[in-house]
Structures are given as C-alpha cells and as structure tokens.
Design brief:
five-stranded antiparallel sheet, about 100 residues, SH3 type barrels
C-alpha cells in the first residue's frame, strides 16, 4: 500500500509559507475577536465612571430603574416608589435611553 503526501509549495520551500499563514491567522483573531472585545470593555468602564444620580439604567439582569445613590463601587437603584435595591457598579449594563435608541 502506497501513501502519497501532498505538500503545498516546493519540498525545499522551508517553513516560511507556514509561518506566514500562522501569522495571518493570528492577525485575523486579533482584529476580529480580541480588539473589539477590548474596545467594548473600555466603553463599559467609561460608562460606569460617568454614572450620575437620576439616570435611568438597566442592570445586567434586565432590571430597569433610576439611580438614586452612588458611592465608590455601589449604586442604589429605585425600581418603584419606595423600592430601592443596592447593586455593585459592575451590575449596571447600560442607560435605558441608549437601549431605546438602538431599537
């Protein structure tokens, strides 16, 4: 039984074509997966730093409410008259008006 191995390029071409292909794959991963994720994280961090009292926000769990208290890492969200919930600042996902504009 004979086995035939097919190889791209000439047999003495070395590893340069393979290294170039590997480098191209790394670039594709960086520009289509890693870089957009880093940008999204930067935007989320900036948004959380700019939170102010009175903003209508949505938590990562989908709870809508109005910010009534802000401390360093803690926010107080009023979801109904007299109903206030305390969350970690990282639990705030987006501003409610921003969601309405995206739809």
């Amino acid at each position: 039984m004979q086995t035939i191995f097919l190889q791209a390029g000439s047999p003495d071409g070395g590893m340069l074509p393979q290294l170039l292909m590997f480098g191209a794959i790394i670039l594709v991963f960086y520009f289509f997966m890693i870089r957009p994720q880093q940008k999204k994280m930067r935007d989320q961090k900036k948004f959380r730093e700019e939170l102010t009292k009175g903003m209508t926000v949505i938590t990562i769990g989908g709870l809508h409410g109005k910010l009534v208290g802000l401390e360093d890492d803690i926010v107080v969200v009023e979801v109904d008259k007299g109903v206030r919930l305390t969350f970690d600042k990282t639990a705030i996902s987006m501003e409610a008006t921003a969601k309405a504009q995206k739809v």
